Amino acid sequence: MAIRTLSADLEAIARQELNEDPARLEADLKHIREWLAKQPHLTARTDSQWLTTFLRGCKFSLERTKTKMDMYYTLRTALPEIFTNRDPMLPEIQHILKLGIFLPLPLPDELGRRVILMRSGIYRPEEVAILNLFKTNMMLADVLLDEDDRASICGTVNVMDHSNLTMAHMSQFSPFLVKKMTTLFQDGYPIRPKGMNHINMNAAFTTVFNLFKSFMKEKMRKRLYVHPDMESLYKTVPKRLLPLEYGGEAGPLDELIEEWKKKVEARRSWFIEGEKYRSDEKKRPGGRPKTQEDLFGLEGSFRQLNVD
């Protein structure tokens, strides 16, 4: 598979910020493929576009790319509740896609970054299992990885709307789950989150927000912003980038949701075929499989946490 040609602005950013050198790219891809061929525990995608996304996410450090890829496939094995049964036509996934809880928006910001709207309180907790919610979110994230050069080169800016969150929503979270998902986002994906903007915060979400924050690396914590009102958000994420329902110009929510629903459905065979890409810990070199404790630091991690 050929690598997509970048626009002039993206090519300049990739060179300046990610150390991308088109003259060296084929050699870098060859190096990663040869490394993967020597990893008996990994079954991985090796097409050029996919590998280039990981190189970009790691600023073309070959060693960081290897570490990130190993973690990506290791977590796919460690979290079967997220990375199996990813058929977008399953009723539970269809329901979540129709809600548009995780929604990449069409217009980039002034720095070229992809804006993603996340509406955490839009679903009924008695109808949506939290693991299916995260599963569907990660399916959308995988489509971004594979299709969106802007997200991998310029990064992402999230707008997280917590309207209508209740204690019933919050009861779906546990410290164990929060730790797993934080590890997945921080260590398993080569997406570059540049800002996480929270709006409509309420008391119900504060405990879970602090829990996520406690597991974040310092760099990520510095990119968290809690906005007291929409005018504050607009200073960071201009109106023109947001859906009509948020005072913006990017189109109505129902049209944006339907567009992404169709995009995910069109990749059904890709998702089903993709379930074979994972790690086999019995074959990991050195004879020491990665355990849940290795990945998530479970032993004693939550004894001091109060989530009541």
TrEMBL record:
Residues 278-308 are annotated as: Disordered. It comes from the Eukaryota. GO terms for cellular component: membrane. GO terms for molecular function: phosphatidylinositol bisphosphate binding. Residues 90-254 form the CRAL-TRIO domain. Pfam families: CRAL_TRIO. PANTHER family: ALPHA-TOCOPHEROL TRANSFER PROTEIN-RELATED, CRAL-TRIO DOMAIN-CONTAINING PROTEIN-RELATED. This is Retinol-binding protein pinta.
